[in-house]
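Appendix C. Worked example: DNA polymerase II small subunit
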Amino acid sequence: MLCEDEIVSRFLATSLFVSPEVVAYIKEQDDPGLIDRIIAGTPEGTVVVSPDCIPALKKVRDGTRFLADPVCEVLAGMENSAESIRDFEEYITYFRNRFTRLSTFMRGRIQPVPIEALARTGRYQEEEVSFIGMVSNVRSTANGNKMVEVEDPTGTMRVLFNKSREGFSEAEKILPDEVIGVRGKLSQDGTIFFANTLVRPDIPLSNAPYRSERPGRAVLISDIHVGSDTFLEDEWHRFADWISGQEDIGYLVIAGDLVDGIGIYPGQEKELVIKNIYQQYAALGEMLSALPERLTIVISPGNHDVVRGAEPQPAIPPAFRIGYPANCVWVENPALVSLQGVRVLIYHGRSFDDMIGTIPGASYNRPAEIMEEMLKRRHLAPIFGMRTPIAPGKKDPLIIDPVPEVLFTGHVHISGIKRYRGVLMINAGTWQSQTAFQKQMNTVPTPAQAVVLDLQSLETEIVDFLTPGS
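Step 2, the predicted output written as structure tokens:
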């Protein structure tokens, strides 16, 4: 198998630089003659070999977008679509669906065999082979290597990722319950698989985001926390005055934690200025009613809201929507909405807690990095059984499919914007100043910010309302 240094050296020998995306593609294909074919097909005058130079990696959209009327359409996570929790045996169906669907994203890049087939013949001790499985256990060995137990519907296999091999940093990020592909060789006794390559479902290198054909802008915010004594009311009024004067803004998207809630954590009642849950939602309804009627307001819940904690979370119940304007669109968490054809995947982000606690070097201060890890795994909450409760269903609604133009989250109260393989990742911060708990954790939020998304260019602008006159 070619390593990164060897791939780069082969291109440099012909006076060509090569992009990381192309290097990753060549490693996945594991075809010794591929580099020569790419170099031969590279147009004259090229300095950097990018995915655009390779026909298989040319940026492509997923087809024509047939726009709905109205131009805001709920594609997934529409109200009343979340299934109720009936029986623990439904988790079997749920995880089978997760495995099957995530496996399909990798089958075009590797040719997997069932795990049980590995032990039938000794050929896989001499030649490389690939398989796909769900991670059931991850641990570090005494030598600092990574031992991962992987299972598919036919069996289980222990996979060793050697710390001396290239790409070990990605193996260190392997999470319980994610679905991965591995390429390597079987040990002589057939009990351990020595991995050479780790493959994830990932966003296709050829992904090209759709852009609206007509002008339009959307504002993205999250974590308002109405009812808390740290809710920034003055800053919200500045925001309301500002958006009222922005005639070209047609959408407001809110990614959960609309109110601070009741009984979310011990001692919360001491930090509430509105102690009645109905009154918290009524106060938010008044705030949204004061905004322009031209806005389509998309509202998704979070872990502080008055719905079950298990994901997917249902939309806010009608009993708590009294007094809200008619231009509100109530969706679940997560939800996929189309704004003039631009698909925005809304996810509050409870799984940040699990992923940050598991991935080495991860931090609440860099939420976009965790969102990138979600995209690599094509899953919003890959870890099961930790702080993010997951409700079973016939299908796993937390799988990222189709690929959105925008992944929009909240929860961590820290804004962040980044792009990964054509997907724009946005975390919009909060409308709550630093809480007592955040002070204990030395977490500094980025409050009173709104992210403005241009639907034609997919460019963003952060507008800060923390300072008067800003």
